[in-house]
Write a structure and sequence with these properties.
- The protein is α+β, with helices and mostly antiparallel strands and 214 residues long.
- It has a domain at 8-124 and 185-204: Immunoglobulin-like.
- 21% of the residues lie in helices and 24% in strands.
- It is built from four helices and nine strands.
- The strands form two sheets. A six-stranded mixed β-sheet has the order 2-8-7-4-5-9, covered by helices on one side. A three-stranded antiparallel β-sheet has the order 1-3-6, covered by helices on one side.
- Helix 2 packs antiparallel against helix 3 (151-164) and helix 3 (151-164) packs antiparallel against helix 4.
- The two termini are 27 Å apart.
- 26% of the residues are buried.
Length: 214
């Protein structure tokens, strides 16, 4: 049987080690977007589903600004969590901490709750970079983001291109280089999984025995 990677954030740190609970990490990344996207590898489970919780809070005040839950997909793969425009946009220069954790995993006790987290900060661009981005192709924009340390947007730009043009060799090469630069080579060939995020009301479709830890 093929072993799948564990719960992983496509971010500036190593994947979660098995049976290891991460309580605090200083992982910083930048975005220029009001509503950035976050990307995670989530192991699928064909036998039973469980919930994964994503939350975003102000780093300094711990005020939660967004929270959602995901029903794990049948297929293991990379999932996008995009901040909705129904919440307030990220403020410039304010750090926000995101947390992704399993609320329950079949066959595990309630003490087992793998958690990964990091920080995103929205920044303003200087005029020179604004002009360069305005005339760049989507692939060139991804490169500019990466070159200037704007990780979240570089990742999102390339992830979107990978899904739109899955056979494009240049996009594949850039995707590989970006992930390898943060020690995530095993994520390069993982599939993208759509439709994993759910609303609170949709959680009613998940049997209670599957979304409660014991």
């Amino acid at each position: 049987m093929k072993n799948h990677p564990s719960l992983t954030a496509l971010a500036f740190f190593q994947k979660l080690s098995p049976n290891h609970y991460v309580s605090n990490l200083d992982v910083w990344g930048y975005t220029i977007q009001d509503y950035p996207s976050f990307w995670f590898y989530i192991p699928g489970n064909t036998q039973s589903k469980y919930l994964v919780e994503f939350s975003l809070e102000e780093q300094d005040t711990r005020k939660i600004v967004y929270k959602t839950e995901i029903v794990t997909p049948n297929q293991s793969g990379i999932v996008e969590i995009a901040l909705p425009e129904t919440i307030s946009p990220l403020e410039v220069s304010k750090p926000y901490r995101w947390v992704l954790s399993t609320t329950c995993e079949p066959g595990r006790s309630s003490d087992y709750r793998p958690t990964i987290q990091g920080v995103v900060i929205r920044i303003r661009l200087d005029q020179k970079l604004i002009e360069e981005l305005s005339t760049a192709t989507p692939l060139q924009q991804a490169t500019l983001y990466a070159t200037n340390g704007i990780w979240y947007d570089a990742l999102t730009a390339l992830a979107q291109l990978r899904q739109k043009f899955p056979q494009d060799n240049q996009i594949i090469s850039n995707w590989r280089s970006l992930l390898q630069s943060v020690d995530l080579a095993e994520m390069v060939d993982q599939p993208f999984v759509k439709g994993a995020a759910v609303t609170t009301s949709a959680l009613r479709n998940v049997p209670d025995s599957q979304n409660r830890c014991r």
